[in-house]
Design goal:
It comes from Actinomadura luteofluorescens. With about 100 residues, the chain is mainly α. It is globular. About 60% of the residues lie in helices and about 0% in strands.
């Protein structure tokens, strides 16, 4: 039975992602090298493309997206999105919600 992401606390989301997310097999793929390593642009783009492919078939994709939208990450690949793409999704969601809020008032 699918889990409703909005019904879970952040802690429960983290637990689900950690036990069922496909990224658990290779976290560096999604997060990149540590802060002390230099990653050439071509390698970073290739790594991100592979990470996005892993996300496509992940059984907890919706949970990951919900988590990423809540925590607003500054790096990594989350549910197939980069942080700037997640920020754009949040802005788009707010823009879509704004007319509904105005109509209710």
């Amino acid at each position: 039975m699918p889990v409703n992401p909005s019904a879970l606390s952040l802690g429960d989301l983290v637990a689900e992602l950690g036990t069922r997310g496909d990224c658990r097999h290779d976290p560096d793929l999604h997060m990149g090298p540590d802060a002390f390593e230099d990653e050439p642009l071509a390698e970073r783009l290739a790594r991100q493309d592979v990470a996005r492919e892993v996300c496509e078939g992940c059984p907890v994709w919706a949970l990951c997206l919900d988590y990423a939208l809540r925590i607003r990450p500054t790096f990594g690949v989350w549910a197939g999105y980069l942080p700037r793409e997640l920020a754009a999704l949040r802005r788009e969601a707010r823009a879509l919600s704004a007319p509904e809020v105005e109509e209710a008032a």
